[in-house]
Amino acid sequence: MTNDIRVRFAPSPTGYLHLGSLRTALFNYLFAKHNNGKFILRIEDTDQSRKVEGAVENLINILNDMGLKYDEGPIAGGEYGPYFQSERLDIYKKYCDELLANGYAYYAFETAQELDEMRKIQQMQGKQTMYNRRARNLTENEINEKIASGVPYVIRLKVPLNEEIKFNDLIRGNVKIETNMIDDQVLLKSDGFPTYHLANVIDDHLMKITHIIRGEEWLTSVPKHIILYNAFGWQVPDMAHVPLILNPDKSKLSKRQGDVATEDYLKKGYLKEALVNFMALLGWNPGEGEKREIFSLKELVNLFTIEKVNSAGAVFNTEKLNWMNAEYIKQMDTAKLAEIVIPYMNTAGIDTSDKDKYNRVIFAIKNYINTLQEAPEHSEIYYSNVNLSEEQKDILKSETSKQVLNLLNIKTAALFEITADNFKPVLNEIQKETGIKGKNLFMPIRLALTSKEHGPELGTIAYVLGKEEVLNRLNILN
After folding, report:
1. What residue numbers bound the domain in which 109 lies?
2. What 8-state DSSP symbol labels residue 84?
């Protein structure tokens, strides 16, 4: 393909970035960059009632954080702006007037109550609910009189009747639909704002979009868009409609069954690199020859082709995401991990001011956490005071326990420092010298250092606590 490829991500600023929208943005980005093309961000904010303050800034920050930097759009600019639809109303009005003049659109004056009544009658008759096209028959005089009288109106698309619209979807293959099943869609609302369908087609053409990659929920709207492209005499871009993201029960991913906002997953401590990797594999695969599942963004760009996107829905598997996120955490530099975990520790009330100990804690837990949010729970054992139950105290009063702990005290004091490697040999020496082994050897040491009967390896615990703290905890028992 040439470097003339241009794709766009066109969200509405309605609050958070849905995971489905994140994947749509990702697929557009990967497709553009794989083909040396341009990735454009356009904000579809014509529905002002749903606009949320700060949503655009939040969206741009997330895209940038994820590495999905757009080439043209808000802030970045570009020669095809403005990139907010609310700033392009004059453009839509101009082209809508052109459709009216050429007989491809018409005025309609029904009230909301009349349209509701129309739908109810159609439902009672078992018919498809759609506009009954009665305003098509208004004369020019009738139209002019209503406009002059100040009757509110919308402008509707005049769908050609008794025809068949055909198109080839890059993911789903050939699709066709009878025009009699297509509603005479509202193009311009009574407030002067365009609907998605009109603005979308005009903007995609004027911004020279070559490929439209979006969710499959827009598949049924394609015939309306093709009718508009044909009415304007414009070339129809290539289209690809990606599958839905599903819950494990195969229902559409929604808030009812859990978090769906990208922000929620980032707050819970999923790494952006892991989330991008995971989302890329929802509905796409790199091919049979590629067995691994961990890919950098650069590797995804190199591998991505639209032909490998599946048409079937993709199940959002949280266990798989946890596994993948854990793999990224394991591979992360310990110092960097320690830095980004601090907010989670502070929220849990864990004091990280002792940086040497804190870094040892992170080294100890990094192979055991799925998300950054789990770090405080796994770290607690290293920051909690020893608090023994009466039953545990009785265990430590036994002769074998005293023997083990006294010898451990002596041998620990003789060490220059405790490392992850030199504590286990100490335990082996105690076993040889006392003949005490198994639970009778390990349990009293574990209780003395943590007051827990289960947990990480003793060598890890001793290394994280450090020589001074280990000796303090052993001496408290004397």
Report:
1. 88-242
2. B
> Does residue 2 register a pLDDT over 60?
no
pLDDT at position 1: 37
At 463, which CATH number? 1.10.10.350
Alpha-carbon distance values, 166 to 202, 211, 369 (Å)? 20, 17, 51
The reply to whether 162 falls in a domain is yes
Taking the C-alpha atoms of residue 71 and residue 32, their distance in angstroms, rounded to an integer, is 10
Q: Which helix (H) or strand (E) holds 459?
A: helix 458-476
Catalytic residue among 255, 298, 330, 432: 255
Whether 166 is catalytic is no
Residue count (the chain): 478
pLDDT in tens, 377-405: 999 999 999 999 999 999 999 999 999 99
Q: How far apart are CA 382 and CA 379, in angstroms?
A: 6
pLDDT at residue 213 greater than cutoff 50: yes
Amino acid at 274: A
CA distance 248 to 267: 23
What mean pLDDT, rounded, does the chain reach? Answer: 94
List the beta bridge partners of residue 240.
213
Q: Rounded to whole angstroms, how far apart are CA atoms 132 and 126?
A: 14
DSSP-assigned letter for residue 70: -
Of 366, 360, 358, the C-alpha closest to 327 is 366
Return the SS3 of 254. Answer: coil
